[in-house]
Specification:
The protein is 37% helix and 24% strand. It has 7 helices and 10 strands. It is globular. The C terminus is likely disordered.
Length: 228
C-alpha cells in the first residue's frame, strides 16, 4: 500500500474504465447492490457496465473526483450537478441493457429516491463514493467528499445524497449532513435509504459594537425550495 495521504484530482477520460472496476469491487457487498442484483456472480458480471454508465453521466453533467496513492487509483466520488431548469438525461435504455432482469428493481429504487430529492433549487448530488476494500477506514472517502464540500461552500450550493447503512449515515452526519425527510424503504426486503442534505455555511457579519462575526448554518425551510 502506498504512502498516505492520498492525492485527489478530477478524473480524466482515461480513468473511467479502471474506475468502473474499482467501484464494482467497492460496492460488491453493498446493501443496495446486493438487493439490486441478488445473484453474486451476476452482480460481478453486470456491475462494471452499470458503473460505466454512471461514470460517463457524472463526467458529462457533474464531476468525478478520484483518489490515488503511489500504487494507483483507490477510490472515486461521482457527483451530478442538478439544475431544476435543465432537462434530465435519460439513461434508462443503457441501464436496462446493463441490468437485464434486475432493471425493475432499479426502477423501484429511482422512483423512491427521486421523490425525496430537493425541489426547485440547484444542488450537487453525490451518487456514489466508493473505496477499494483494502483502503477503507483510512479517511479517503471523507477526503473525497470534503474536497467537494469546500468548493460548494464558495458558491453557496447545497449537497444531497442517500445513505444506505447506519455506518455511512454516521459518516455523513459528521461531515455536516442532516436528515432530509423520512427514511425510504425499498421493496422486497431492501435496505432503508436515508436522504441527507448539506447546507453550505453562511458567514454572518456583525455590525460594529455588536457580537463578533460567526458562522451559522441555516436550516432547510419549506419556502427555500427544499422538500421537508
Amino acid at each position: 500500500m502506498g504512502v498516505y495521504p492520498t492525492r485527489i484530482r478530477r478524473a480524466l477520460p482515461g480513468d473511467l474504465l479502471p474506475l468502473a472496476h474499482i467501484l464494482s469491487v467497492a460496492f460488491h457487498h453493498d446493501p443496495v447492490s446486493t438487493w439490486l442484483m441478488p445473484d453474486e456472480n451476476d452482480r460481478a458480471e453486470r456491475h462494471p457496465q452499470f458503473f460505466r454508465i454512471f461514470l460517463h453521466t457524472a463526467q458529462a453533467y457533474g464531476r468525478v473526483d478520484i483518489a490515488s496513492d503511489d500504487d494507483g487509483l483507490c477510490g472515486a466520488a461521482l457527483w451530478l450537478d442538478v439544475d431544476p431548469g435543465r432537462p434530465r438525461t435519460d439513461d434508462s435504455l443503457p441501464l436496462q441493457l446493463a441490468l437485464g432482469p434486475n432493471f425493475g428493481r432499479l426502477e423501484s429504487l429511482l422512483a423512491a429516491t427521486g421523490a425525496a430529492h430537493p425541489d426547485g433549487v440547484e444542488y450537487a448530488y453525490l451518487v456514489f463514493v466508493g473505496i477499494l476494500p483494502e483502503y477503507q477506514g483510512n479517511g479517503i472517502g471523507t477526503a473525497l467528499i470534503t474536497e467537494r464540500l469546500v468548493a460548494l461552500a464558495t458558491t453557496g450550493t447545497a449537497a444531497y445524497l442517500e445513505a444506505s447503512s447506519p455506518r455511512a449515515t454516521g459518516l455523513y452526519r459528521r461531515l455536516g449532513f442532516t436528515p432530509h425527510g423520512e427514511p425510504l424503504r425499498l421493496p422486497g426486503g431492501g435496505p432503508d435509504m436515508h436522504p441527507l442534505i448539506w447546507i453550505p455555511p453562511v458567514t454572518v457579519v456583525a455590525a460594529p459594537g455588536l457580537l463578533p462575526a460567526r458562522q451559522s448554518r441555516p436550516q432547510p425551510h419549506p419556502h427555500n425550495g427544499f422538500r421537508q
